[in-house]
Specification:
By secondary structure, this protein is an alpha+beta fold. The protein has two helices and ten strands.
């Protein structure tokens, strides 16, 4: 294995951090209107129909949720969490948001919620033993190409140095034999 290949092999694709974004969607049932996002002021302590699962704060609905420049979506769309505690659409039902949640709707249930989730992944590049290489655009392929160009140039420089050293050795050997 050449020197440049051994250096290149020490740079592995960066294991980029992945985070699951989770948003609660709440709805209240009104006998004439049906299910709606219009909550009463006491529901969810006034936080509204959309709540960020990680910090419990009010947030935009999932369609308006925006990522910062450091992140990109790793999933094409939002998916509801469906398990034994929800119905087939991911809804859980309760009398009030502060009460116990149930997978089946009863006549006494006037609120419902479901947990939407979507995975995001950090933008990045390559990481070596001692440093991380990220192109200015945050493009992983661009960072890898930059490293390859760098190592190719470094290998050429190393060969030139070795050739110069051999030339000097030959000159010193030839002058020593005369």
């Amino acid at each position: 294995m050449s020197w440049s290949e051994s250096v290149r092999s020490s740079f592995q694709p960066l294991k980029l951090p992945k985070v699951m974004v989770r948003l609660w969607e709440y709805q209240r049932y009104y006998p004439i209107a049906g299910w709606t996002h219009k909550m009463i002021p006491t529901d969810n302590r006034g936080r509204g129909a959309w709540i960020n699962h990680s910090d419990g704060r009010r947030c935009e609905e999932k369609e308006k949720y925006e990522l910062s420049r450091e992140w990109k979506w790793n999933m094409d769309k939002w998916m509801p969490l469906i398990d034994a505690n929800t119905d087939a659409q991911g809804w859980a039902y309760a009398i009030d948001p502060s009460m116990t949640w149930h997978a089946k709707k009863g006549v006494e249930h006037f609120v419902r919620r479901r947990l939407w989730q979507r995975e995001k992944i950090a933008r990045g590049g390559l990481i070596g033993r001692h440093q991380q290489g990220i192109s200015s655009s945050g493009d992983e392929d661009g960072a890898q190409k930059s490293y390859m160009i760098f190592f190719d140039r470094l290998e050429c420089f190393r060969r030139d140095l070795m050739a110069e050293e051999k030339d000097e050795e030959l000159v010193s050997l030839s002058s020593a034999t005369w």
